Amino acid sequence: MQYRHLILLVLAVFTTKMHAQNIPLYVGTYTNEDAEGIYQLQFNTETGTLSKQTLAIKIDNPSFLEYSPNRKYLYSTNATNSGFVSSYVVNDDGSLTMLTRMRSHGELPCHIALNKAGTKAAVSNYRGGTLAVFPINEDGTLSDASQVFDHNSEKTKSHAHSAHFVNDDLFVADLGTNSVFQYELKKGEYKLDTDAIVKVKGNPGPRHFTTTQDGEFIYVINEIESSVTSIKRSNNKFKEIDFDSTLSEDFKGENASADIHLSKDEQFLYASNRGENTIAVFKRHPKKGTLEKIQNASVHGDWPRNFAIDPTGKFLIVANRRSNNLVVFKIDPNTGELSFLQDHKTPTPVCLLF
């Protein structure tokens, strides 16, 4: 009898431990096919296993997702011709309840970012070519945009693709104008500081970017030229320090690069290739900030639009839009290289949020 009780105790501890290792992963989708909205899965931070996929809320084209700092609320762009941005309450069971739905002030919003205080959201409208800044209230609701920036001109059609708050500044990557803009916070409003932080050659098409925690280095992924531009910031001046292809030397087809992230320890950089269907892995020089490509890992699917590194830094998960699957990789902590673990069927995934 004691032996049986011991087995039951071990099983109970094991079950509790496995449950504690599961964390939520939200998936934004395009709903013009089989997807219905935002999905939630459980991700095991020890095994890398995805499970328990449920529909968190039925909503149209939730193309990009972001949490509030306290993780009580979730925000999404809704990539429609009219263009919307939505806020939700995160319920105890992981489901979402709509709070507010606002016009995004531009067609096809594709990216949303919050400042550290959770008091502002920046929404990039791809087709509209505008960036809108929305005040966020204490209850998680959105107020109408307090500022809208239009990057279009008579000569150039803007395609604002992403924005991030870096300390008090707001940076915007614009694929249409081939620029990364810097807005400075002055007397409670954002003011354009410069037309572009660095001058670029040709038509690279800056899409997304990431920064080191100290804000000294910025890494921009270029959709059209399939490359990464590395930028160093010093005394609020910017200098391009490196430029690297994301593609294998022997790849000859068409490609459109998409997403970019630093590893948790900032020793490695990852970039997704839609067409070659790989994740490019770069080793990063910690002081110089320059990059060296060390791997192009197959994503075991088609069209990796977005990917995410889990909070432990041990796994990288890719959203393959056209093949309708999520793919989990193990990250080698010493080399940064990726090794395939598993895939999970999910309809038209385009954004991942831990």
Automatic annotation (TrEMBL):
Q: Which residues are the signal sequence here? A: 1-20
According to the UniProt entry, its GO molecular function terms are: 6-phosphogluconolactonase activity
Q: Which GO terms describe its cellular component?
A: cytosol
**Which top-rank group of organisms is this from?**
Bacteria
Q: What keywords would UniProt list here? A: Carbohydrate metabolism, Glucose metabolism, Signal
Which InterPro entries does the record cross-reference, listed alphabetically? Cycloisomerase_2 (IPR050282), Haem_d1_sf (IPR011048), Lactonase_7-beta_prop (IPR019405), WD40/YVTN_repeat-like_dom_sf (IPR015943)
* UniProt xrefs under Pfam families: Lactonase (PF10282)
Which BP terms does GO give this entry? glucose metabolic process
Q: Which residues form a coiled coil?
A: none
Family statement? Belongs to the cycloisomerase 2 family.
Q: What is this protein called?
A: 6-phosphogluconolactonase
Q: Which organism is it from?
A: Pseudotamlana carrageenivorans
